[in-house]
User: Fold this.
Amino acid sequence: NAGVTQTPKFQVLKTGQSMTLQCAQDMNHEYMSWYRQDPGMGLRLIHYSVGAGITDQGEVPNGYNVSRSTTEDFPLRLLSAAPSQTSVYFCASSYAKSGLYGYTFGSGTRLTVV
Amino acid sequence: AQSVTQLDSQVPVFEEAPVELRCNYSSSVSVYLFWYVQYPNQGLQLLLKYLSGSTLVESINGFEAEFNKSQTSFHLRKPSVHISDTAEYFCAVNPRAREKLTFGTGTRLTIIP
Assistant:
């Protein structure tokens, strides 16, 4: 089925470890983004990309890196995990930067940092 | 900069009763408005959207939302809720000239049998 695929679905990390959350879409969407969801805070934008080779910071970028080498993939890297990064992470993609068609979300990655 | 306010973090409603989930926004430019729904342990799904034209928009499962420019609101309503409507609902705004979608903090709708 077409859509946004996120892996892994669950992950437990120790403080200081690094890891990469994977996101792939097969809809030829130019726009991709990463959000984190925390109780009472809604979704906060971490990083986004408007096309291959182009990335930019959202409102909470510290501690995360991204790259966009292909249209399909947009991995999120945690450089040195901290307990404050315990959250549910969602990847989203869209045809239009303006949001005309809405965003398609993946099913999320639940990350716990101990 | 734009922002979205969802005043109610939780809304309990009896089954078959009506519900209104409130959303207010602020923006200095014209915006697109969205409601997304997140069922337990799933990602967000687009429920409905307002882009232009008729101020009343409807979803396929009985929800509707009305864009009120003077009150800068986009409240979500359903005349009769079902157990399957249990979910968290997010209002979102996107300025027409930019690409970022700004979400509200969400309203958790709980249906009481």
User: Anything to note?
Assistant: Chain A has a mean pLDDT of 93.
